[in-house]
Automatic annotation (TrEMBL):
It is a multi-pass membrane protein. Keywords: Membrane, Transmembrane, Transmembrane helix, Transport. This is MFS transporter. The chain crosses the membrane at residues 51-69, 81-99, 105-127, 139-158, 170-190, 233-252, 272-290, 297-317, 323-346, 358-378, 390-409. It is found in: Cell membrane.
Length: 422
């Protein structure tokens, strides 16, 4: 028995695999996309706005495919699905490297999005839910941080590859490298479920021991979707999702912004490495602060720090150090606002009673922002020749978000006063 207790539960090996899969798919692939835009648009004589429309197509496909993807993951062998998904997602990057017109990005954004639905959205929460009955929140936080860590390693490498070998080689080598790493990881470490290999989920025994102690009631507290959708708190949350995703969308344009200030793509890659370190630290720190000071105060702090980051980008970008630190701070605050603070705010405002329904409905704001903001920023740059107007837009959106958070929690008080929060 003593020997059995010392053995590492297989849930932790599953978590290692998820960190590699999600971290590379999100941190190395998706978050490096902006590094390729200046080189591709210049060589092929494409407007930045026209090229970045592929992000909108990708967002639309993601919206359509999400419910289908959940059913596929439940029905088919998870390893087959994940291997297919990473080949589609990373294979799209390889295809971008061979593209000679903007239509290449438009066409291959479809497999990019379909594969990404599994590797960056679904697989983490699904497998953590299957393997962890205890410390599942921590497990999700670690997966989020892995994207920052692996992205911080990958971004400078990608930037210098583009600088030395060209954007086509950058696309192709990155796609091939991700497939070579992820496919063996899936085959060696991913299993369908604990039951499939004769185990119970991590912490399941503890859950059984505590199951009759009244803990279940807390998970049922909150507001129903029907009531939530009639409240000012819900529409404030929806708009918060919309605006924070619009703000975060600027991260794709950061490499172009840096190069528009006269720096080369190699330096842009280093700065994006700092951005990913910010994402890594923010995933850990902001999650901790939510538990300590609440989601409302944490959002206020994040928005103020993001405002400082944008002001530095506007007025101190001639300093390499200031530019690097501001970009890292932007990643620390804004990117984690989408992945950490938005879900935490949903719980704070509406509880856990019908959390998944409320969160998925409010999340339409995330998808809509992804469709609109990315190309809009590109077209603003095309027509003005500068990202300065975009940064002023981002600044205004951050201020509006502070107002929306305040209004959302006032709406929560009304729900409680009216007896709907139970």
């Amino acid at each position: 028995m003593a020997t059995a207790k010392k053995k590492i539960h297989y849930a932790w090996w599953t978590l290692v695999a998820l960190c590699i899969i999600v971290g590379l798919a999100k941190g190395a692939l998706n978050n490096s996309a902006g590094l390729f835009i200046p080189g591709a648009t210049k060589e092929l004589d494409i407007l930045t706005g026209n090229l970045t429309l592929y992000f909108s197509i990708s967002s639309i496909i993601t919206m359509i495919f999400l419910p289908i993807g959940g059913k596929i993951l439940a029905k088919y062998d998870i390893r087959t699905v994940l291997i297919t998904a990473i080949i589609l997602q990373a294979g799209a990057f390889i295809a971008f490297g061979f593209s000679n017109s903007v239509w290449g990005w438009y066409i291959f954004s479809i497999p990019l999005a379909v594969g990404g639905v599994f590797t960056t959205v679904i697989v983490g929460p699904v497998l953590v839910n299957q393997w962890f009955k205890k410390k599942n929140g921590m497990a999700l936080g670690i997966i989020g941080a892995s994207g920052g860590l692996l992205g911080a390693i990958a971004q400078p490498i990608v930037g210098h590859t583009i600088a030395n070998e060209g954007w086509r080689t950058g696309y192709i080598s990155l796609g091939i490298a991700i497939i070579i790493i992820v496919v063996p990881t899936v085959l060696l470490l991913i299993r369908k479920s604990p039951q499939a290999i004769g185990l119970t989920p991590y912490g399941a025994e503890l859950d059984s021991a505590l199951g009759d102690n009244g803990m279940k009631n807390d998970s049922d507290k909150g507001v129903t979707l029907a009531i939530a959708r009639k409240s000012s708190a819900f529409y404030s949350l929806f708009l918060f999702f919309l605006l924070i995703t619009s703000i975060a969308s600027f991260s794709i344009h950061i490499p172009s912004y840096i190069q528009s200030r006269g720096y080369d793509v190699g330096f842009a890659g280093n700065v994006m490495g700092a951005y990913m370190i910010g994402v890594l630290l923010g995933a850990l720190v902001l999650g901790y602060l939510v538990d300590k000071i609440g989601s409302r105060n944490t959002v206020y702090l994040a928005m103020v720090l993001a405002i400082i980051a944008v002001l530095v980008l506007l007025f101190a970008a001639n300093s390499k150090l200031a530019l690097t630190l501001a970009t890292g701070l932007f990643g620390f605050t804004v990117s984690n606002s989408v992945g950490t603070l938005a879900p935490a705010m949903t719980t704070s405002l509406f509880g856990s009673r019908e959390y998944s329904q409320i969160y998925s409905t409010a999340s339409l704001g995330l998808a809509i922002a992804g469709i609109i903001a990315l190309p809009a920023y590109g077209y603003i740059f095309d027509f003005t020749g500068s990202y300065t107007p975009v940064l002023y837009v981002v600044l205004v959106l951050l201020i509006l978000n502070i107002i929306l958070v305040t209004y959302a929690f006032e709406g929560k008080k009304k729900l409680q006063k009216d007896g709907h929060w139970n």
